[in-house]
Amino acid sequence: MAAPSAAQRIVIENAAIATVDANDTEYASGHLVVADNRIESIGAGKAPEGLENVVRRIDATGHLVTPGLVNTHHHFYQWITRGLATDHNLFNWLVALYPTWSRIDESMVRVAAQGSLAMMARGGVTTAMDHHYVYPKNSGDLSGAIIGAASDMGVRFTLARGSMDMSEKDGFLPPDFAVESTEGALAATEETVKKFHDASFDAMTQVAVAPCSPFSISTQLLKQGAELARRLGVRMHTHGSETVEEEKFCHELFGMGPTDYFESTGFLGEDVWMAHCVHMNDSDIAAFARTGTGVAHCPSSNARLAAGIARVPDMLKAGVPVGLGVDGTASNESGELHTELRNALLINRLGAHREAALNARQALRLGTYGGAQVLGRADNIGSLEAGKLADFVLWKIDGLGHSSIADPVTAIVFGAAAPVTASFVNGKQIVENNRLLFADEEQIARDARAEAQRLARITAQG
Questions:
Q1: How many other C-beta atoms can be found within 10 angstroms of the C-beta atom of residue 287?
Q2: How far is residue 154's CA from residue 74's CA, in Å, rounded to a whole number?
Q3: Which tops the pLDDT comparison, 320 or 243?
Q4: How far apart are CA 145 and CA 251, in angstroms?
Q5: Amidohydrolase-related domain location, by residue (predicted)?
Q6: Which alpha helices (H) appear in 242-358, and where do they start and end?
Q7: pLDDT for 32-60, tens place per residue?
Q8: Cα–Cα–Cα angle for 361, 362, 367, rounded to 5 degrees
Q9: If we measure between CA atoms, which residue out of 208, 273, 207 comes closest to residue 240?
């Protein structure tokens, strides 16, 4: 449907463009026309003549325009616990950090969300998600604080409302005071969905049902969480097959591996995406492909925690939807998604497929359209096509770091992290020359340091 003539238009010209559409259409020098919050037209050469209500024209010479990056897995609260337990595997890392995480409160979570979002948005992320699962008693409105931070920054956002109901007293990992009751977690999740989830095409905020992981939740919470999500019509998310220790845990406790366990509880399907999925055998990958279950691939975090190399090329060949995730910044201290394009490509080339594992365009697709797929939003974001939402990034590729690389997509994937000259979400610019337009980065840094120090003091006091 054509935009009304009264729509305000932004015209971008003279840019290299990677649309990441179904045909991987690219233009060496092309245009993009935005009408209000939608992409109106895209193509080679100059924009059409006679456009009405053009409020801005951008000469994008020396830039590559791509869809905005889509982050599919994160834990924002970890922004204030970076740099700890740096030589641990996953289980030991969790044991070391749960006592600290269990003392977070609303003020800490708000600042941590601001820091996490700022770092991603400044680096080309236009759609973010947060899997928040730590809700200590009397800690305030944590979900509201996270969603408010995303709204203030102008980023499209999915909150995966997490939960844990099994603790040390049950033989699981979280401290006893860090978990909710099964009934309480389900009730709070339903309340969060009803209060914040927007199912519309141009939604800025959505909510998913997201029990934490097999080693912190009961089978009852997983099953009832799936039933709740499907009753409310929202997506589902959790951690799965991250480490060999998790595989062993599931076999010992449930008599089956993680994928079979999830399927037995109703937690596979086109409305589900899992984080990590490092230790997947052929049968697991086939189950994901058969059910349409998506994967959030977190290469830097997987390496940081020595979890292993996910079989991303095999997943893609089988038809499994795969996106990229930063993961929490206590296991990926950089907090950036654009570096994951490069890391996904390089780390997967260390696996069985070697140099044929991924190429530059596949990496870009993981970070854009693939992410939109696993968040259930491929019809409105993730590629640059007429009628889709105007979420896009202008990467500067004519500077020192990139000017001698002839191919623009190779430049931003294989090269250093490219500067973001402009980033738009819903047709509204949120970044200019690598600086946020709706947040004070220096103030966020000061606040984050203060809250990190406060959390450390509270933890030390026991």
A1: 19
A2: 18
A3: 320
A4: 38
A5: 64-429
A6: 244-254, 258-264, 282-291, 299-304, 312-318, 338-348
A7: 999 999 999 999 999 999 999 999 999 99
A8: 95
A9: 273
Confidence at residue 6, expressed as pLDDT on a 0 to 100 scale: 86
CA distances from 79 to 23, 142, 312, 373, 420 (A): 38, 15, 27, 26, 22
Q: Which of 222, 315, 237 has its CA nearest to residue 275?
A: 237
Task: Tell me how far apart the alpha carbons of residues 144 and 121 are, in angstroms, rounded to a whole number.
Answer: 20
- What tens digit of pLDDT does each residue of 325-375 get? 999 999 999 999 999 999 999 999 999 999 999 999 999 999 999 999 999
Burial category of 99 from C-beta neighbours within 10 Å (exposed 0-12, middle 13-18, buried 19 and up) = middle
- Spatial separation of the C-alpha atoms in residues 211 and 213, rounded to whole Å: 6
| CA 339 remoteness from chain centre | 13
Residue with tokens 């959030």: 296
CB 403 within 8 A of CB 395: no
Nearest to 242 by CA among 143, 176, 328: 328
> For residue 2, is pLDDT > 70?
no
Q: Give the integer Cα–Cα distance in Å for 404 and 386.
A: 32
Q: 420-425 and 392-396 as β-strands: parallel, antiparallel, unpaired?
A: antiparallel
Pairing of strands 38-44, 54-59: unpaired
416 torsion bin: left (phi>0), alpha (psi -120 to 50), beta (else): beta
pTM of the predicted model as reported, rounded to 2 decimal places = 0.97
* Residue 392 backbone phi and psi in degrees, to 5: -155, 165
Residue 1 has pLDDT above 50, yes or no: no
The residue-averaged pLDDT of 130-139 equals 95
* 348 and 309 Cβ atoms separated by less than 8 Å: yes
